Amino acid sequence: MPRPILATIHTSALRHNLDVARRRAQGARVWAVVKANAYGHGIERVFDAFRAADGFALLDLAEAEQLRQLGWRGPILLLEGVFEPRDLEICSRLSLWHAVHTDAQIDWLSQHKTQVPHRVFLLMNSGMNRLGFTPARYRAAWARLNALPQVDDIALVTHFSDADGDRGIAHQIDVFEATTRDLPGERSVANSAALLRHADAARVRGDWVRPGIMLYGSSPDYPAHDATHWGLQPAMTLASRVIGVQHLEAGDTVGYGSTFTADGPMVVGTVACGYADGYPRHGGTGTPVLVNGVRTRTLGRVSMDMLAVDLTGLPQAGVGSEVTLWGRAGNGALLPVEEVATAAGTIGYEPLCALALRVPVRVET
Predict the structure, then answer these.
(1) Exactly one of 35, 39, 216, 275 is catalytic; which is it?
(2) Choice among 39, 138, 222, 256 that is catalytic
């Protein structure tokens, strides 16, 4: 039989989460953000569930081409724009919308030969200091684009650095509004955190919202709020089984480096999952896990193909027992990926995106 690890994609949860985003958007159009292969879920697996979105947003031309091959004829947005002049030829062929965040991209557009003008999203650096034109240079960039016959509509966009935290978004949205007040064009500012925490304000919803992680059932502001608080459902379950059992006495150690030492009799289960499957290596002792739907913990270091879990006090557990690494167990118990990620010193985005190619994936309707 194959190795007993399996990722399950729950399309009903994807649809539900998109509906949550739609309700929060209150009439604004919704980009379904599917970058990083749909946050590790697989573009081809989430496509049907997200067809109700108004458009798809991503980074890679290959992923955009995949969406066209799947039959999507609506808008597709390249969130980082193009990376070299010839990418514009693909944008023309596939009718892609694309971000513009640097003078070089405007230069390339000015030299691009196309019969159909492009729709662009002009990115402002309103405080993130990652990509985009500063407020002082934004209007000049808009004027350059507006003068080009290669450009049709110019949407106005920025990205928040602190929508998920205490600092909030006021300092950025105020700058964005002041700079763009009399400029024509659609607005797009809200990511998942802004859509969940700040979208009561019309200026935050704008014309387009850009939900990403919330579509996959993970909270963007955990631990302040978990996914249940926002009405989201986990869209991925990673599960395996116990493949071996060891009985320990006081002083026995577990795993590489002997980082865990038993202080008394214990039962330890070995699970067919490791960092080569995408499980966080830095989880270490204490990361939550469900065995037969009952919460317990990992022990010692995560190795490439296996990890250890504490079966002490779980008399029904043994070889073959179901192990839920994150997501929903067979009995309905839930282990949020954010909890697992926090124990490993990271965020829920990372383990979802890190799901390894060797892990079989099942799509559940």
Answers:
(1) 35
(2) 256
- 303: tokens are 């190795």
The residue type of 113 is K
pLDDT, tens digit (0-9, with 9 covering 90-100), for 254-300: 999 999 999 999 999 999 999 999 999 998 899 999 999 999 999 99
**DSSP assignment of 111-152:** H---SSPEEEEEEE-SS--SSSB-HHHHHHHHHHHHT-TTEE
pLDDT tens readout for residues 51-68 = 999 999 999 999 999 999
Q: What is the pLDDT of residue 283?
A: 83
Class of domain 11-216: alpha beta
113 classed as catalytic = no
Fold for the domain defined by 236-364: Lyase, Ornithine Decarboxylase; Chain A, domain 1 (2.40.37)
Q: Where are the domains of the chain?
A: 11-216, 236-364
SS (H, E, C) 218-286: CCCCCCCCCCCCCCCCCCEEEEEEEEEEEEECCCCEECHHHCEECCCCEEEEEECCCHHHCCCHHHCCC
In tens, the pLDDT along 209-233 reads: 999 999 999 999 999 999 999 999 9
What's the token pair of residue 136? 């002082």
- Indicate the pTM of the whole model: 0.96
